[in-house]
Structure formats: structure tokens, C-alpha cells
Design goal:
It is globular, with a radius of gyration of 23 Å. α3 packs across α4 and α8 packs parallel to α9. β14 and β15 form a beta hairpin. It has about 400 residues and is α/β, with parallel strands linked by helices. It starts with a helix and ends in a 10-residue tail after the last helix. The chain is built from twelve helices and 18 strands.
Length: about 400
């Protein structure tokens, strides 16, 4: 059954392919807005702030849409933060959570006026020595909780590069006392595809315990990791249950702490994943001795998640939706085994048909590349029932724009 989240793009898909060509990423603005409102409404009685994790999708129009909804921004590079400021976000509504960067990037963040989140002792000490109490910072703690749908996206376990270990809190306190740093927030992020409130609550208890020696806290940031549906009848995070349980526990914590703090979350995939599809064209239907391949005009250079994370993305034939279902493996045009889906039941595919690859709004275009010297695709946003081009397809000039040809070849 076609979900409501898919229906808006499905109505426009064929015309978008005709007007803008393929491959093209398409995003439904109404789905993005609905996901944002659903998440915000799940938390009651607390001062909840949503900071959209723009690493998922950072097209300037998506950022402007999130800003218009009242969202803040979660950034992991100074470039993302600059995009946010360019899109109209107030720097004080942008949290900056990098890892493995040097002090130059931290200085840039401070000068922009961002909320700075530090995840290692070395930078914490350097920042404290340079800025003292002039620029408050948040501390990203590693709660040593294993969570997430894939090893590459589990970030809070003991072997993770992210965060300051909760067992290093005594060292944090020594740095704070020696430098005069003001700590205004505590942060954690355990991973992605988390189904229930228990993982958040386990981490929250650690942050609550850690708060005892920080008197100037203004917020706590629980990161994100909420699971969305990839298949029909897929399990998803019960946001109402998560919202209720965390809200109740957070209110009790604020009472014990002695003042109301803001509760921050940083959803990315939850906001934009289901809002996006990648439209591709069938170039060839190839029968081998054991498999029928549908070869399309895209590949892992445009959507790497199936190859990198073993991610499942539903694939639909929007040109022949009522056709007889047949078994296909949908593959790309890259000179590697780049398979979007093995042995999928799809309405009969003919050469020239348009296929929609679902759940492509998060980490789709954002992780695309020019591998095999292929062009990156265009992006289209459906907003107020109209399809708007928000990024043109690359051309040959884009491939060579930053290359410098030596005069030794003359």
C-alpha cells in the first residue's frame, strides 16, 4: 500500500522526470514539515528545541524551510554552520559539534557566535586557555552505550571516536576549574535507528548524574537516532512513547536541578528521509542465466547507502505501477557492483521506465560524488504543490572547474 508520505511525489514523479530529467532527487516539503511538527508535538510540558542535523541534507532551500518552521540547526563542520548562517539561521540557534578538528575551526565557530559542543579533552583545554569564560561551551559525553542499526552509525559505544568518556569527567572538571570555562550544556548521541525510549533514558541518567558539578547548565542535548520505515510494515520509533517518557523524566530532573533547562534533539534522517526519492531511468533490462537485471542511469555515486550500510530502499516503477510484478535486481552504471536492490518484486520494468527509489532524502545527494567522472544529479523540491528546481544537474564544466592544467603539456 502506498503511504501518504509517498503519495505527493508519486503524483508528480512522471512529470518531474519529463521536466527535469533523471537522475533527480525529489523532496516533499509538506512531509518534512509534518515530520518536524510530529516530533515537536511528542514532547509535552518541556522546553523542547529541535536542531535539524543538516548533514542529512543541506540544500539551502531545505535549510530555509527548516528555519521557517522554527527549527534550529545541528552542524558538524564550519562549512555547514556557514551555510546555516547564509540560510538565515541566527548563530545562537546553531550548535557546532565537530570531531577531530583543530583550534582554527573552533576559533571560527566562536567568532561566528555558534553554540560550541566539544568532544575531546585536548580541544577543551585549548579552548579554555584561549577563551576562558568569554564563550560558554557544551560538552559531548560518550555514555558507552551501543546503539544503532549499523556499526558505522553507532557513535556512543566505548570504542567510538566520538565524545569524552563519562569516566573522564574528573579531568573535565580540572580543566574547567583551571581555565574558568563556563559549561552551558551536556550532550550525547548514541547512534541511529533507535526504536524505544530506553536507550535515551539510559544515556539521560548518565547526563543527569554528570550535571551535579555543572551549575550553569542551560540545556541538555540528547542527539537523535529515531528510526523511520524503510519497508512496508517496518518497525519505527514510537515517538509518542519516547516523548512521554523522556518528558516526564526530564521534568523531574529539572525540578531536582533547581531550574528549567531546555531539552534539545538533533533529528536529521527522521525529518527528511521519507520526504525524498531518487528518480532514475531504466537503461537496460538484462537477462542472465540466473538473474534479470534492471540497469539504471544512476549508481553508488548518487546513492551509496545500499553499498555502504546495506541499507534497504524500496523501489517502485512509477511508469508502470499496475504492471505484473516480476523479480529484478536493480543495479547502477558504475564500474563496480553497485546494487540498489537484489531480487525485488517490482511492477514489470521496460527500458525507458522511471523508477523511484524511496527513503532517499537523508544521506542521498549529501553523500554523492563524481566517481567514474559522472555528474551529480539535480534536486527538486515540491512546495505548495509545485515542483521547483533547487539544484541544477552538473555538467562537464563542473567536472573541470577546479582543475588546473599545467603548462608543461603545451
Amino acid at each position: 500500500m502506498q503511504s501518504k508520505k509517498d503519495s505527493n511525489i508519486r503524483v508528480h514523479a512522471q512529470k518531474i522526470a519529463e521536466n527535469f530529467g533523471t537522475p533527480t532527487y525529489v523532496y516533499d516539503g509538506s512531509t518534512i514539515a509534518q515530520q518536524y511538527e510530529n516530533m515537536k508535538a511528542a514532547f509535552t510540558g518541556v522546553n523542547v528545541k529541535i536542531k535539524y542535523a543538516c548533514k542529512a541534507l543541506s540544500n539551502i532551500n531545505i535549510l530555509k524551510l527548516m528555519n521557517s518552521l522554527g527549527s534550529g540547526l545541528d552542524t558538524v563542520s564550519i562549512q555547514e554552520a556557514m551555510l546555516g548562517v547564509h540560510a538565515g539561521f541566527d548563530p545562537k540557534d546553531i550548535i557546532f559539534t565537530p570531531n577531530s578538528v583543530d583550534m582554527n575551526e573552533m576559533r571560527d565557530a566562536a567568532h561566528l557566535g555558534l553554540v560550541i559542543n566539544i568532544d575531546n579533552l585536548s580541544i577543551l583545554e585549548q579552548f579554555g586557555n584561549e577563551f576562558g569564560d568569554k564563550h560558554p561551551v557544551c560538552i559531548r559525553l560518550n555514555p558507552h552505550i551501543m546503539a544503532g542499526g549499523h556499526a558505522h552509525i553507532s557513535t556512543g559505544h566505548i570504542d567510538s571516536k566520538f565524545g569524552i568518556s563519562i569516566y573522564q569527567l574528573p579531568h573535565v572538571h580540572r580543566i574547567v576549574e583551571a581555565t574558568g570555562l563556563k559549561i552551558n550544556g551536556l550532550h550525547m548521541h548514541t547512534g541511529s535507528d533507535i526504536l524505544d525510549a530506553d536507550v535515551f533514558l539510559r544515556g539521560a541518567e548518565l547526563l543527569f548524574d554528570a550535571s551535579e558539578k555543572f551549575e550553569d547548565l542551560e540545556f541538555m542535548d540528547f542527539g537523535s537516532g529515531f528510526k523511520v520505515a524503510y519497508k512496508d510494515n517496518d518497525m519505527t520509533t514510537d515517538m509518542s512513547d519516547v516523548g512521554q517518557k523522556i518528558s516526564e523524566r526530564f521534568l523531574k530532573f529539572c525540578q531536582d536541578y533547581g531550574k528549567e533547562l531546555a531539552l534539545w534533539f538533533e533529528p536529521g534522517k527522521f525529518i527528511v528521509s521519507e520526504a525524498g526519492q531518487l528518480l532514475v531511468k531504466c537503461n537496460v533490462v538484462k537477462q542472465t542465466t540466473s538473474t534479470v537485471f534492471v540497469g539504471v542511469n544512476s549508481g553508488q555515486n548518487h546513492l551509496i547507502r545500499p553499498m555502504m550500510y546495506d541499507a534497504y530502499h524500496k523501489i517502485e516503477n512509477v511508469s508502470n505501477p499496475e504492471g505484473i510484478e516480476r523479480i529484478y535486481s536493480v543495479v547502477g552504471y558504475i564500474c563496480e557492483t553497485d546494487t540498489f536492490g537484489y531480487d525485488r518484486k517490482i511492477a514489470e520494468v521496460r527500458e525507458g521506465d522511471i523508477l523511484a527509489i524511496h527513503n532517499a532524502g537523508a544521506y542521498g545527494f549529501q553523500m554523492s560524488s563524481n566517481y567514474n567522472s559522472r555528474y551529480r544529479p539535480s534536486e527538486v523540491l515540491i512546495y505548495n504543490e509545485q515542483a521547483h528546481l533547487i539544484r541544477r544537474r552538473e555538467t562537464f564544466n563542473d567536472l573541470i572547474a577546479n582543475q588546473i592544467v599545467l603548462d608543461v603539456w603545451e
